[in-house]
Design a protein that fits this description.
Elements lengths: L2 E4 L6 H7 L4 H13 L1 H7 L7 E5 L5 H11 L4 E2 L14 E2 L2 E2 L6 E5 L2 H12 L11 H6 L2 E4 L9 E4 L2 H17 L4 E5 H6 L1 H11 L11 E4 L30 H8 L1 H9 L3 H6 L5 H8 L2 H9 L3
Parallel strand pairs: 2-3, 2-6, 6-9
Antiparallel strand pairs: 1-10, 4-5, 7-8
Helix pairs in contact: 10-14
Length: 304
């Protein structure tokens, strides 16, 4: 059975663990983001939303966002029709007019430290990412991203580092938002710890006449959701997937695994304006506060 999370409360152990990544600054960012989407949602309030596109880097919560939006907001989700959900947003044009695919876009993001640790784990499979030895080597070498389901060919991207990919992806999505396209950012940490609030904001962004109730109980799947796209329609059973671990949404846990030295290597490659765009204005301060003895000890013991 899925785990139930009611509104923004903290009664469940799952929510308590994931909620450690959300501090008061993130809450202020959520309110700020809610204000920033009002104009766009008001323009769509009179029009029925026929669907929403969800984009994000790999393992950023796009599958969870799709599950929650389709189940609770009853809105169809598009992933890869037209362009890849993990690719840098293309410069679509019609004459002098910029295009965005004619659907509002929800952008899922995970904090860069937790995100890059997740990519390092996934790179061992040699599918989306090319494996690269130890963590320090992975964080500092050129980073290749491969489209994972097109045949016979596939698109590939190369960046200076994993941090550069995180920067470029979310910078482009913010540029699209600044250009006037209907784009809304959602933090994975917020989606896990306060799903009802996240759904309320998404429903408001989509212009629903009755936004989702922040006091509603929302069920988070107990098993991790398998990767999905708009081409392969056969989905794996939830029970074929590993049990979802809330600690993987926890920044302190990620810092303890990567060590403070590797965390600094990640943060040096991340731009402040992109952190702000994703709703993480005080993330560097949050990292310093979340780093515990384990993170410092791992840095002293050595790089991995």
């Amino acid at each position: 059975m899925p785990a139930k999370v009611r509104g923004g409360g903290g009664s469940r152990k799952h929510e308590q663990n994931a909620g450690r990544t959300i501090n008061s600054s993130t809450s202020r960012a959520v309110i700020k983001m809610d204000t920033s989407i009002r104009s766009g949602s008001q323009e769509r309030a009179c029009n029925a939303v026929v669907g929403v596109r969800i984009m994000g880097t790999p393992r950023s919560g796009t599958n969870l966002a799709k599950y929650l939006v389709e189940r609770y907001l009853k809105t169809p989700v598009v992933f890869d029709r037209g362009f890849w959900k993990h690719g840098i947003f293309p410069a679509l044009m019609n004459g002098r007019d910029m295009q965005y695919g004619d659907l509002p876009i929800v952008v899922a993001s995970k904090d860069p430290v937790t995100q890059l640790l997740s990519w390092y784990r996934q790179a061992r499979n040699d599918t989306l990412f090319k494996p690269s030895g130890c963590l320090a080597s992975f964080l500092s070498k050129p980073f290749e991203v491969r489209q994972d389901f097109t045949e016979p060919g596939r698109m590939e991207y190369r960046f200076r580092s994993p941090s550069d990919y995180w920067n470029q992806f979310y910078f482009a999505m913010d540029a699209l938002r600044r250009a006037g396209a209907p784009v809304h950012f959602v933090c994975y940490e917020q989606l896990v710890s306060c799903p009802a609030l996240s759904l309320h904001m998404i429903s408001h962004f989509l212009g629903h006449s009755l936004p989702f109730d922040v006091g509603s109980a929302v069920e988070i799947p107990r098993h991790a959701l398998g990767a999905s796209n708009d081409v392969d329609q056969t989905a794996n059973s939830a029970f074929d997937q590993p049990v979802y671990k809330s600690s993987r949404a926890d920044l302190a846990s990620a810092l303890a695994r990567v060590g403070w030295r590797n965390a600094n290597l990640i943060l040096r490659g991340i731009d402040n304006d992109v952190l702000c765009a994703t709703g993480r204005e005080d993330f560097r301060k949050t990292c310093r506060e979340a780093a515990g003895a384990k993170a410092m000890l791992r840095s002293l013991v050595g790089l991995w």
